Amino acid sequence: MKKIILAVLICGLLSGCTDPEKATSVLSAQGYKDIEVTGYNLFSCGQDDQYHTGFVATSVTGQRVTGTVCSGFLKGATVRFD
Question: Could you tell me the pTM of the whole model?
Fold first, then answer.
C-alpha cells in the first residue's frame, strides 16, 4: 500500500512541473496552431528550467511537430523540438 501511495505522490509532483498556459502562449506567438500539451518531459530541458511542458502542434508550413517548452521562474521560455 505504501508503494502505491508513493507512486501517486510522485506522479502528482511531476504533473505539477508543467506550465500549459505559458507553453501555449509561447507557441501561439510563434505561429503554431492546433497545440496539444502532452505533459511533463523529464530529460528535455536544462537544469535551470523548472517547467518541462511537452507539446504536439502544427507549424506555419502545416507540418506536425513535437517538442518541449522549457521555462523557469526568473527566465523566459525556450522551445526545443524532438
Answer: 0.80
